UniProtKB/TrEMBL annotation:
Assembly: Monomer in solution. Oligomerizes to an active state in the presence of the positive effectors ATP and maltotriose.
Record flagged with keyword Nucleotide-binding: yes
Protein name, entry field: HTH-type transcriptional regulator MalT
HAMAP family the record matches: HTH_type_MalT
Upper classification of the organism: Bacteria, Pseudomonadati, Pseudomonadota, Gammaproteobacteria, Pseudomonadales
Family to which this protein belongs: Belongs to the MalT family.
Entries under PROSITE patterns matching the protein: HTH_LUXR_1, HTH_LUXR_2
Length: 924
């Protein structure tokens, strides 16, 4: 951006001296981020008289406008206002001066400061100014910056007059923290105004990423960037503070985490912003309403306990504080999250407000509006068992069917045990919540406490009903303990009985039946059960159960190797969620998670990453403990992209979480698989050895489901990483046999890939190629890609050998070629290039037109090729001898011959040659 020169020809009314900086565009900050998303607004619209940019302080209003107008080479003049510009004479002078910069006006009018009526002087001046403007010109902008400073009604009136009579080529740009009194409502209705608000100005995650990339010397994960943007709601000043405060990616992450509790610098900023200007009444309004996640005038009056709420709200909105409309209706408002944290901090440090009473009033108000979630949150904050029980009696079942477990838990935690034990519904809710959090011992405690309590007061008949419903949850717990026999027996009992307390008990029991069959490997039967569960759940409008049943159907289809079918089922679940507006429910994370797994397998890395990030966003309120699966996916994606340090960060997080919590084997095995691949890539043998000592037990011959299979494969892969192929082989063969018998096609596919690798490593070429061929065959239904690419560069060699030997054709050959291409593109961060020189590869190298001439004219023997690749892998002569099981002197002889043929005299040249040749094959 260049500073525009002041036009000396402009006459200054009343002998005004112009300060150049006031009528120049501001200088761009260092590291200015271009914001092209505003081009549409500025360029493609019909010309309008007013472009209004209004947003709270520090949202980038000025910078964005200056940057865009400059980039678009728009003809623009600036007038940057300050308090003294409330004087109409001064205002008129500067305005005319600014206009003179963009429009050729030979005679500027003079203003008569002694105009006998208020407004007359400025208005007649503006009339003359407008009359002197040329009828047509190229589009131009006149920018009035910091307009909130103007308090003089005469000037507002003058601007309204100006807006009515501006020539079509001239757009007035008003930048303000507040909504200026310029007849905005009318202009908006007439379509004569473009509005840019904090919602538009907020940086999105892509912009924030570019912003941080420019400023930070370290890499920040996409997840952290998205979290930061969410927490600061795209407010650029907070992003700026973040980039100035964090020196490492860990500090960055801590900083973002702590924003929920508050940050002194941000508090100071808000202190300065609002401190002096507030009346006592306004201040009290802000503190009291800070407990609300959103409010309208009615809600405010209830919580404030006085009738002035509406007027106060209006006065605060006019101040341009961090209050934003919740939606386009502009009836409901909320505080910016950081501002709300600040206000709550102030509220907590004052003794003048009775917080408990505020929350109680809020509970009652929300209950009256039938907004159960908010009511529950305030009842918990009020620590009021009577209100909590009231909310739960009215809405507890709904929370449950929606899967609002965290909310339920907060409510139930605040209730005395006795109240729960006396009430079968509350007990059921309590026990389901405990089971959802893997606190299985607690489940039984709650159930038996209630059974004891209820014995004394209930008929035997009623007790039987209660017992039946309790069986549904006991079945689920048995399932989670891996006891599918007991789970089946209990679930059958529960399914047979009508539910009296939780209408969804039978649905839950039916779901356990399906799950139990699934883990036993009875896939078709399990699928049917899950379809039935879905129908039952739909009949009860039990959203959580519908999505759950669909996710399970998808999981079963994945196990059957039908990934496309799984994808379609997921689509149905997404559609259901959309139709019922369930996007905020925690269960949606499950859906995103299984979608990301399919996406990873199909090598759609961006989608896989996006789904994992969305999962994290959904779970933000539930706590980090639940991110394990999402982090695992992000680690897998980082690995597939060859981003080692990012992958290491995620692996470290996953490890920490696994060490701290109890998770289902499904999650654990999935996470371990990724950890092992990572350790193998970075050759961290110690980590793999350590893992083997604590690895979950595995019985490959009983691996009737995907997580037992995965767990078994993990052990085999760990052993292979340590070179213990004979230990790995029986595990993989047993897994393959079970998977084949019961139709676990995806696992079968993965097992064949692992076996191909194993046999390749022990130089059993024939078996290796056979397993790879079978894997490719299965991939025609699974569509698997990710599982192949996980092998790394060695995949290229095996596939080339398969093609070279003519063992595959048609679809399989095409698939193999595509996989080779992808493997070549894949960035591999393992230290050495571990590609062995099979005949197929050597042939491939020799056939290439770009190989050095000597390779063709003085061909190497197979042994020499082998030695060349081992030299390249960094092995010493002794190590090569050991590897090939020959004497050191033999190695030396081969090396001499190799050097002679290729006209080489140093080892470094041999390494260079190998690197060059291999890079042609493996794409690095
Ligand atoms: N596109 C951008 N690239 C880099 N930094 C930016 C960008 N936009 C804003 N900033 C920085 O953010 C801070 C706030 O920007 P700016 O002063 O433009 O906000 P504002 O909304 O006009 O604030 P105020 O109401 O206080 O005048 C400044 O330090 C600015 O340098």
């Amino acid at each position: 951006m260049s500073e525009k020169p002041l036009m000396p020809t402009t006459p200054a009314p009343s002998n005004l001296t112009f300060i150049a900086a006031k009528t120049s565009a501001p200088l761009p900050p260092a590291g200015l981020l271009a914001r092209e998303k505003f081009n549409d607004l500025l360029q493609t619209r019909e010309p309008v008289s007013l472009l209004l940019v209004h947003a709270p302080a520090g949202y980038g209003k000025t910078t964005t406008l200056a940057e865009r107008l400059d980039d678009l080479e728009a003809k623009a003049a600036w007038y940057r206002l300050e308090n003294t510009d409330n004087d109409p004479v001064r205002f008129a002078g500067y305005l005319a001066h600014a206009v003179g910069q963009i429009v050729d006006t030979p005679d500027m009018p003079a203003i008569d400061p002694t105009g006998d009526q208020q407004g007359h002087g400025l208005e007649s001046f503006l009339t003359e100014l407008l009359a002197g403007l040329p009828p047509s010109e190229e589009p131009s902008y006149l920018v009035l910056d910091d307009y909130q400073i103007i308090t003089n009604p005469e000037i507002h009136q003058g601007i309204r007059f100006l807006l009515r009579h501006l020539p079509p080529y001239l757009t007035l740009v008003v930048i303000s923290r507040t909504l200026p009194p310029l007849g905005v409502a009318q202009l908006r209705m007439k379509g004569q105004m473009i509005e840019i608000t904090s919602r538009d100005l907020a940086f999105d995650a892509d912009e924030a990423q570019s912003y941080f990339e420019q400023r930070l010397p370290f890499e920040v994960s996409r997840e952290n960037i998205e979290r930061a943007v969410r927490r600061v709601e795209g407010w650029v000043s907070a992003l700026q503070l973040l980039s100035a405060s964090a020196r490492t990616s860990i500090e960055f992450s801590h900083f973002v985490d702590q924003l929920d509790q508050g940050n002194q610098h941000i508090f100071d900023y808000f202190d300065e912003l609002v401190g002096q200007d507030l009346s006592e009444q306004q201040r009290s309004f802000l503190l009291r309403t800070s407990i609300l996640d959103r409010f309208n005038a009615g809600m405010v009056m209830r919580v404030m306990n006085d009738s002035d709420g509406q007027a106060l709200l209006g006065s605060l909105l006019a101040m341009g504080l961090f209050i934003t409309p919740v939606d386009n209706s502009a009836l409901w408002f909320r505080y910016h999250q950081l501002f709300s944290v600040y206000l709550r901090h102030l509220l907590a440090s004052t003794t003048q407000e009775n917080q408990k009473a505020l929350h109680q009033r809020a509970t009652d108000a929300w209950l009256e509006l039938d907004h159960a979630e908010e009511a529950a949150r305030h009842a918990v904050a009020a620590e009021d068992p009577e209100r909590i029980t009231r909310v739960l009696n009215q809405h507890g079942r709904k929370f449950f069917t929606e899967g609002q477990f965290t909310l339920l838990q907060r409510c139930l935690d605040a209730l005395p045990q006795k109240i729960i034990a006396e009430d079968p519904t509350l007990t059921l809710l309590r026990a389901w919540v405990a089971q959802g959090q893997y606190k299985f011992d607690e489940v039984e405690n709650w159930l038996s406490a209630a059974e004891t309590q209820l014995k004394a007061v209930m008929s035997e008949e009623s007790q039987r009903t209660v017992h039946g419903e309790f069986s549904a949850i006991r079945a689920q717990v048995a399932m989670n303990y891996g006891d599918s026999d007991r789970a089946l027996a209990l679930a059958r009992e529960a399914v047979a009985q009508e539910a009296a307390y939780l209408p969804t008990s039978r649905v839950a029991a039916a779901s356990v039946l399906g799950e139990a069959l699934f883990v036993r490997g009875e896939l078709q039967e399990a699928l049917t059960r899950m379809q039935e569960t879905e129908h039952m759940a739909r009949a009860h409008q039990a959203h959580q159960n519908v999505i759950w049943a669909l996710c399970q159907q998808s999981e079963i289809s994945v196990a059957m190797g039908l990934l496309q079918k799984a994808y379609n089922i997921q689509e149905r679940a997404f559609q259901y969620a959309e139709e019922n507006q369930l996007n905020h429910l925690p269960i949606l994370e499950f859906l995103f998670r299984i979608r990301s797994q399919v996406m990873w397998e199909w090598h759609h890395l961006e989608s896989a990453e996006r789904c994992a990030l969305q999962g994290i966003e959904i779970l933000e309120a539930q706590g980090e403990r639940w991110y394990v699966q999402s982090y695992t996916t992000l680690a897998k994606v980082a690995q597939a992209r060859g981003r080692q340090s990012l992958c290491a960060d995620y692996i470290a997080k996953v490890q920490k979480m696994l060490a701290a919590g109890d998770y289902h084997l499904d999650w654990v095995a999935n996470a371990h698989a990724t950890m092992l691949t990572y350790w193998d890539a970075v050759r961290d043998q110690n980590a793999i050895e350590r893992w083997l000592t604590i690895a979950p037990p595995c019985k490959p011959e009983e691996a009737t489901n995907h997580f037992y299979q995965c767990n078994g494969r993990n052990r085999a892969r760990a052993l292979m990483s340590l070179g213990q192929y004979q230990g790995a082989r029986p595990i993989l063969e047993a897994l393959t046999s079970v998977a084949g018998q019961i139709g676990l096609k995806t696992d079968l596919n993965r097992n064949h890939i692992a076996l191909a690798y194993l046999f390749w490593q022990i130089e059993n070429r024939e078996k290796a190629l056979e397993h790879m061929r079978l894997a490719l065959e299965l991939a025609s239904t699974t569509g698997a890609v990710g599982s192949f690419l996980r092998l790394g560069k060695v995949l290229i060699v095996i596939l080339k050998a398969l093609i070279n030997d003519g063992l595959i054709e048609g679809m399989e050959q095409q698939r193999a070629e595509r996989l080779i291409q992808l493997a070549q593109q894949q960035r591999d961060f393992s230290r050495a290039i571990r590609i062995s020189l099979d005949e197929a590869i050597i042939q491939d190298i020799i056939d290439r037109p770009d190989v050095p001439e000597l390779i063709r004219t003085s061909p190497l023997t197979r042994r020499e090729w082998q030695i060349l690749s081992l030299i390249h892998a960094g092995l010493s002569n002794d190590q090569i001898a050991e590897h090939l099981k020959v004497a050191s002197t033999t190695v030396k002889t081969h090396i001499r011959s190799l050097y002679q043929k290729q006209n080489i005299s140093h080892r470094s040249e041999a390494i260079e040659l190998a690197k060059d040749l291999l890079s042609k094959i493996q794409g690095e």
